[in-house]
TrEMBL record:
Domain of life, per lineage: Bacteria
Coiled-coil zones: none
Bacterial bifunctional deaminase-reductase C-terminal domain: residues covered: 31-192
Organism (species): Kribbella capetownensis
Name of a matching Pfam family: RibD_C
One GO process term, biological-process aspect: riboflavin biosynthetic process
GO-annotated molecular function: 5-amino-6-(5-phosphoribosylamino)uracil reductase activity
Name of this chain's protein: Dihydrofolate reductase
Amino acid sequence: MSLARVHNFSISLDGFGTGAGQGPDAHFGHAGDRLHQWMFATQWWEAGGTAGVDDVFVQRHDPGIGAEIMGAGKFGHPGWHEDPDWKGAWGPNPPFHTPVFVLTHHTRPSIEMEGGTTFHFLDTSPAEALETARKAAGDQDVRIGGGPTVIREFLAARLIDHLHVVVVPVLLGRGVRLWDGLEGVEKDYKIEQTSSPSGVTHLSFTRA
Ligand SMILES: NC(=O)c1ccc[n+]([C@@H]2O[C@H](COP(=O)([O-])OP(=O)(O)OC[C@H]3O[C@@H](n4cnc5c(N)ncnc54)[C@H](OP(=O)(O)O)[C@@H]3O)[C@@H](O)[C@H]2O)c1
């Protein structure tokens, strides 16, 4: 069976996967870009960037992925569903290039974008969403793309096979936490830790 994989999911030292106060011009709320500066420094993000350990991890985001599942909070800022023309935060050619299943209580017809990305909107359980995404992905894996609420739901339902979390040495103090309600979830996984000279720590959770 294809795997459900999380890649490059960045959290603060105090466990927040996004900040407070998300809005149209603040996708990560008061966190700004602090959770992803490690990624922006890599050659994966921009030519001339670093080619070290952060780049090795970040490159694993796309290979073997045939579909993504994301939450309504990643697809858009609070209230996006009131805008009938909202097509996500990535412009006409989003960086997914696969079917993307948006979990939301505000479903709408699918939206075909340039470059192979089609957004589909599902109001269903994580298990059923994963089954749908697996069919769309063929024999490839499904990426669970975030945000923290959706990854937490999939972890609670024991649906994640591989989880790559990047711990960033900032304290956000407020926002949306990844780990709440998941006591003991680490027992299901083999865990490896890789420290990067950039200051972040990569944690790889692989289902035992
Ligand atoms: N740290 C990272 O690496 C990373 C990665 C990706 C995104 N992010 C950030 O994370 C933030 C979004 O995360 P979030 O935790 O606020 O929200 P989220 O996980 O993206 O989405 C949660 C929302 O999705 C809908 N939903 C979830 N499960 C559902 C289900 N089973 N059925 C129907 N609807 C369901 C609900 O919204 P409705 O009820 O409104 O439909 C719920 O409030 C953004 O700031 C984004 O930029 C961070």
